[in-house]
């Protein structure tokens, strides 16, 4: 059975790239696409995904708040895929991991122009690993 993934990303270009990358794997199915964290939360309860990929910087509700809400109400393995989690963004990485994200992956600057095979492989592997993880609820506090 395919791993059911929800994408939460405000950039249509990035969304299309991730969807193509993930759909290239026979083990993964993108079941929903949300343009911000608010819409993402609605999709989580409706679609019950196995794994969620979210951006950090979004309008309405950012990825950090989205992660906190998901982990409080619908604990699901989350991969934060964002420009704001480069190796130098220690604070952002710490905050999203503390909020309950299981992993982070920086958006490669080159991938926005054309999808790189290594990023595609890394993303598919991360999703497959995250789908095996059990996560616990983290109450909002």
What does this structure look like?
This protein is of the alpha/beta class and 141 residues long. It has a single domain, classed as 3-Layer(aba) Sandwich (Rossmann fold), CATH 3.40.50.2300. It is built from 5 helices and 5 strands, in the order βαβαβαβαβα. The chain has a 5-stranded parallel beta sheet, sandwiched between helices. The radius of gyration is 14 Å and the shape is globular. The model has no long low-confidence stretch (mean pLDDT 89).
The tally of helices reads 5
| Uncertain residue segments | none
Please give the order of strands in the largest beta sheet: 2-1-3-4-5
Distance N terminus to C terminus? 36 Å
Helix and strand element order: EHEHEHEHEH
CATH homologous superfamily label: Response regulator
Which structural class fits the helix and strand makeup? alpha/beta
Mean pLDDT, nearest integer? 89
Number of domains: 1
Sheet-strand content, in percent, reads 15-25%
Helical content band: 40-55%
Number of strands: 5
- CATH class designation: Alpha Beta
Q: Under the CATH scheme, which architecture would be assigned?
A: 3-Layer(aba) Sandwich
Principal-axes geometry comes out as globular
- Biggest pleated sheet: 5 strands, parallel
The rounded Rg comes to 14 Å
By CATH, the topology is Rossmann fold
